[in-house]
## 1
Amino acid sequence: MSANQQLAIAALNQIFINSHAKLSAEDFEHIFNQAADLQISFSDFIQVLLESTLWSEMADDQNIFKDLCLDLSREIEAHNAQMAYEPEYHSRKHFIDVSFTMSLLISQNQLIGQGNSPWNLTPLDCWHLLIAAIGHDYGHNGTVNFIASQQELNSIAKIHQFLKKKNIPENAAIYGLTRNLLLSTDPIFRPGIIEKAMQQPSSLTLEDRLSILLLESDLMASSLPERGIELGNLLSLEFEKSNPKMAGIVASIPGRLFFLKSVAFISDQAKSLGADLMLKQSILRVENEIH
C-alpha cells in the first residue's frame, strides 16, 4: 500500500473517531471536503475505507464481504472508466460520497447501541449496507427514469450478475436484500418511506431501517448547506441531456428548497451525527435567500 493510501487511512480513522461528537453543519462540510481531497480513485477509496479501523474490526478470516466490496468497486471503476460519458453527478465521486456517508453512519453504532436502540446493527447488516452503497448507482447513465425504477433495476441486475460471477448462491439473502435496498433509492418511493418512519416508527422492520440508512447515505452530501448547492448544479448539468425542464427546476432556489424539504434524517445514527440539525440549517439558509 502506498504512502498516500496510508495517509488516507489515518485521515479516515481520525474522521470516524471525531464523529463520536455531534457534528455542526460546518463540521459536515469539512469532513466531506477532507474525503474529496484524498484525490484517489473510487476503487482505491474503497480499499482505503476497508483498511480503516471501523471496517477492519468487522472483517474476520471467514468474512467474504471485504473482498466482495473491493471487487465490486473495481468492476464499477472499470465500467465507468470506459464510458463515453460519465454523468456529472452520478459519477464515481458520488459513489465515494455515499460509501463515505454510510461509514459515517455506521461509526455511530457503538454510541447508539449503549441505549439499546432498535437501529443498532450487526456486522452483517453493515456489510450488506456497504455493498449497497458501493453499487447503488452502478451503470447509471445520467438520464432520469422513463419507466418505474429504470436506473435502479439496471443497477440491481448488474450487482446480481456480479454476485453470480463471485459464486454467491442465488438463494442467498443478499440478492433479495440488495434489490429491495436499491429500489428504496428511487425518488418516487421516498415520501412513503419517510412517512412510515415518522408516523409508525415502531412498525419499521430491519429491512425498512436498512433502506432508510441507504437513503440517508445517498442524500446527505446533497443536503449540505454549501456542498449541496455544488452537487445540485452538477445534477442540473446531468439532467440537461435528458430532461431540460427538470434541470432548470433542480438548479433553482425553489427547487433546492423542495428537495431539502423532501429529505429527512430519521435513523438514530443520523441523529447521533447531527444530520437532522444540519438539514435544518440548510433549509433555513435557502429560506433566507428567498426572503
Note: The domain at 3-218 is CATH 1.10.1300.10 (Catalytic domain of cyclic nucleotide phosphodiesterase 4b2b).
## 2
Amino acid sequence: MAEIAEGGGGGHKGGKKRAKKLSTRIDMTPMVDLAFLLLTFFVLTATFSKPKSMELTFPAPPPPDQKPDEIKKGITLLLTKDDRIFYYEGEFRAEPNEKGPKTELQELNFSQDSKNSLHKYLLEKNKPMHEQIMALKAKHDSNQLPDSTFKRLVKERKADKESYTFLIKTDDQATYKNVIDVIDELNVNVVGKYVMVDIMKTELDLVNEKTGTASN
C-alpha cells in the first residue's frame, strides 16, 4: 500500500506561504505475501516429470530336465545391426526334417511405405484380432460398453490361443532404439502376445549369413 507522509513544515518566511513537502512510501508486504501464495500454488499444482517405462514380458525358464514347450503360431523377429529385421514363422529347423524344410529368414524394415514394412506385416498377421478390438473400441467410445467390460473383452481377445505369439530376439549389434520401435509397432497393431528371449546360436548363424558377418 502506498502512503503519503507529510514531511517538513510550512510556515511563513518573508510573508510567503511555502508548500508542504510530501514523501511517498510503498509498503511491499502485501506484494510479497501474494508472491509466496502464487509460488505455493504453482508448486502444489505443477506436474512433475515422471520416469517413462515400458512393460516387457519374459517367459519363465523351464526346469533343466524339461524340454521347452513349442509355441504354436509363433513368429520370431531377429534384430541386428544397420536397423535390419529378419523373421521366420513356426518352429526353427537348422536342418530339414520330417516337419519341414530348413528355416529360411525373410527380411522386414521400419519403412511405412515399403512392401516389406514391419507395420504392414504385423497388420496383416494380426488383422482378425485388430478388427475385433477396433469393433470393441467403437462400442466403448459410443458408451455401449462400460470400461470394465471393454478392458476384460480386450484382454480375452489378446489371450486368444489362435492369435500369433511374437518372439523378439537380438544379437549384440542390435540397438535399443530398434527394440523399442518393434515393441511400439506391436502395440500399435494391438498384438496381444510377445516376449523377449535370447537368440539361439543356430539363429545367430543364419543372421550372420544374411549380413555377411563372421560367426564367433
Note: The mean pLDDT is 81.
## 3
Amino acid sequence: MFLVRLSDKLTRTLMVLGAGWAFVLCFLILFDIIMRAINMPISGTKEIVANSVVMIVFLQIGFAIRSGAMLRADFIVTALPKSFQKILLFIALALGAVLFFFLMKAGIKLGVRSFVNGEFDGEGALRVPVWPTRWMVVFGAGLAGINYLILSIVELFDLRIDPVEL
C-alpha cells in the first residue's frame, strides 16, 4: 500500500530529525549553563528551547503512533473477550484519528495568523519566530491522524502490515 510506505518513510525521517534537533538542543542548553556561570547567558535560549520542545513532540508523534509506542493502559481491556478487544481497539484508533485531525484543523488558522502577523517569541536581542512551531503542530497532527486512520483501517479489515522500524 503506497500510503503506508510513504507514511512510514516520512514518520521515520521526521523522528530522526526530531532526535537530531533534541541532541543539538542539549548542547545549546549546556553552553548556556556554562555561559551563565561566567555571567554571560545566551540570549533567547529559553524561547528556542520552548518552541523546539513542541516541534520535537510533533516531529516524533507520527512515528510513536505508527510503531505502536504510544502509551496504552490496556490492563482492563485484556480481561475482555477478544472480539470486544478488537472493537475497542478500532474505536480507540478511530478516535485518535479524529482528535488529531481536529487538532490539525484548529491549528491551520493559528499558523496562518502567526505567519501573516510575523509573530515572535522573546524580547530584546533574539526574537524567535513562532510560525514554524505552529505549522509543525499542524503537519505533525495531520500525520498522526493519518497514521491512526491507517491503523484503524488495518484493524477494521484485519489486514497485515509490519510496524515501522528505524
Note: DSSP finds four helices and two strands in the chain.
## 4
Amino acid sequence: MSQIKISKGWEISGNLATPESVYMRRREFLKGTALTTLATSALLMGCTSKLPDPDAETPLSEIEKKLYPANRNEQFQLDRPLTSERIAAGYNNFYEFTEVKEDVRVHAQALPTRPWTVEVAGLVRKPKVFDIDDLLKTMPIEERLYRLRCVEAWAMAVPWTGFPLKSLLDAVEPISKATHVRMTTFYMPFTAQGQLAFWQPWPYTEGLTLAEAMNELTFMAVGIYGHPLPKQHGAPIRLVVPWKYGFKSIKSVVKIELIDSRPPTFWNTLQGLEYQFTANVDPKVPHPRWSQAKEKMIGTEEIRPTLPYNGYGEYVAQLYT
C-alpha cells in the first residue's frame, strides 16, 4: 500500500524548481551585475581617468608619414559631395562606448590602438596573426570615395584609406570548405563600458559570405580624410561594405575567421527581425519601424532617395541572383 505524503508548508512542487542550466549560470549573472555596479560607482565617484582631447592632433608614425595621403582609386566616384570631416567625426555609432552618437568621439578615446594585431584563422592554409603596422607596409593601400548608409536612414559620403579584404584573405589562402567570414572586435569591458551589458552578446561580431568578402568593393579601412582612423571611426582597422547598412561594417577588428556556415552576429542575434544577416540597402524593404525609401545626409540635412544596394548594384547584384 502506497504511503500518502503530506507536503510541509515550506516545500515546493518539483515543476517549480529552477532548471539546473539556469542555476548553473547564476554566477554569470551575478558577475555581470557586479561589474556593471562597479563601473557605475567609479563613474559617479569621478574615479575614471581623464580622456584625451578627441580634437588633439596625433603625430604620425614613420610608416604613416609615407602612407598618407594615399593615391585615390578613381574607379569609385560619388554622386554627392563629401560629408564634412567635422560632421562625420562627431556623429558615430559605437555602442561599446555609448548609445549617444555625439558622445562617441569623446568616450572612444579610451581605446588603446597600439599595439594591435589582427588574427586571420579558421579554414585557411596559412593562418597568421598580423601586426597592424605590418599590414600598413604590405597591403595595397589606396583611397576610395564611398557612400555610407545607416539602417537608421541617415547617410554620409567619406574618403576611406585602406585595402581590399580580398588581398588579406588571399595571403592566408582559404580552403574550399570555407563559405563565410566571421569578424570580431575587441572585448575590454572596463575600457568600453557598454560591454558591461552582460545580457548583450559581446564582443561585437559580424559576418559575410566568402563571395561578399572577396568582392572588389569590400574594404578594410585604416584611414579616413587622408589620415589614420580616429578612434570613433573604428581605429585602427575596420570593415567597410558600402552596399550594406552600416552596422555590417564592424569597427576595431581583432579577428577574422573563415568558416563553413553562416555565423551568428551581434544585431541579428539581438533583433533578427529588424537586422537581417544580409542587410543589403533596399529602398523597397522597410525597417519594421520606419521606411527605407529615403535617406538624410548628415550635415546638410538633404533628403535623397535611397538607392538599391546603395548605388553599387553593378558591382554586387550578381551575388544575389
Note: The chain has two domains: 20-48, 71-320.
